[in-house]
Amino acid sequence: MKRGTLIILSGPSGVGKGTVREQLFKMNDLNLAYSISMTTRKPRPGEVNGVDYYFVDQATFNQKIQEDGFLEYAQFVSNSYGTPKDKVEEMLEEGKNVVLEIEVQGALQVMEKVPEALTIFLVPPSMEELERRIRGRKTEAESVMQERLAKAEREIKTKDSYKHVVVNNTVEQAANEIADIIRHNIN
Ligand code: 5GP
């Protein structure tokens, strides 16, 4: 069976990666599989362990680092996030196109290890719009929000490291553009 393609979907916090990803997963011809990350962040309301993330404590996360169990991992605001590598490998072997929805430090690590990965960076239409979206989430304290906004500005500066940059004007438009990029690269 033909090995699947590794797809990195990155972009600043709050740009809408999760929503665009959900839209992409409705397109069955893309043959996508999602890599569920491990994180030390506490679940938000509605988030399910083993679906949205594997929610673990710092000791468990550190243990996984010791075992060399991550394809990449990074600290984001005050939590750790990482991609368990065995599962990704298994899904690629099964011919699935595996989506990593990750922040920029992790994305840069994967680019080094897997240069053939299809890398896509989602940007907001403007910084004002990004701020509106981050504030709209209302699940974080003001200080955390300020930190995420400052971080987003730094993250956007890394966009030229990606093979494709897509503007998230609307979920449909961004998902359709990304789907076309994927279709051009998987066959
Ligand atoms: P959130 O706390 O909003 O779910 O995620 C914070 C940031 O971490 C987002 O940009 C998200 O894409 C990113 N992220 C989620 N999982 C991983 C991962 O496994 N590795 C890395 N490097 N970033 C991740």
UniProtKB/TrEMBL annotation:
Signal peptide: none annotated. ATP binds at G11, P12, S13, G14, V15, G16, K17, G18. One of its GO terms (molecular function) is ATP binding. It catalyses: GMP + ATP = GDP + ADP. Its main location: cytoplasm. It is found in: Cytoplasm. Keywords: ATP-binding, Cytoplasm, Kinase, Nucleotide-binding, Transferase. It comes from the Bacteria. One of its GO terms (cellular component) is cytosol. It holds the Pfam family Guanylate_kin. Its EC number is 2.7.4.8. Belongs to the guanylate kinase family. This is Guanylate kinase. It comes from Sharpea azabuensis. The lineage of its organism: Bacteria, Bacillati, Bacillota, Erysipelotrichia, Erysipelotrichales.
